[in-house]
What we know:
By secondary structure, this protein is an alpha/beta fold. 38% of the residues lie in helices and 19% in strands. The strands form two sheets. It has a six-stranded mixed beta sheet, with helices on both faces. It has a three-stranded mixed beta sheet with strand order 5-7-8. α1 links the parallel β2 and β3. α1 runs parallel beside α3. It is globular.
Amino acid sequence: MEKQALYSKSGAIATITLNRPEKYNTLRPSLLSDLEAALRQANTDNEVKVIILEGAGDAFCAGFDFSGGLEHFGEHIEEATYDPGMDVNAVVNPYLSYMTQFMGLWRGLKPTIAKVHGYCMGGGSEMALCADLVVASDDARIGTPYSRVWGCHLSGMWVYRLGLAKAKYYALTGESLSGEEAARIELINQSVPLEDLDQQCKRLQRNWREFR
């Protein structure tokens, strides 16, 4: 079975590619497990100086995969028996939580850049914002629509980057932002036209690699 987070290395640059393009790279435990393995590989390779996280196909990541039944998330989130308490328990339990994989971007030894295009929604936005730098295409869509059900952000990075008042606004309304708007309010670092996104990330890679 093909990995759902692909790992490649070119010189000092490691690239991790979320690889469920037919599902807009939505998150399942199998993808997160592959992400964790890729981050471990990059962070234990002395040749790697910078890690790029990107999405295959038309989107970075459209959030958690709620399609075709929810049994892949375990018993606490089955459609017929969803238990909010069990869900909270899973999120805060480091042995069960996907937050461990998200925060691997933040706590690792190597600088990380999230290269965002298309949808960057829900859990996908939480994951991207755990990177050290976030660069998006102007027309990307970034938001947390699930918050209209649960009412809060998962990783706290929206609060960390925006401050409480703005983060609560987007959490409770579920409104999304374009990449351009997200850069203007300093949720992310930069936005550029889609056709310039690869080149801008290469510039950042070069600067960081030379610095280190």
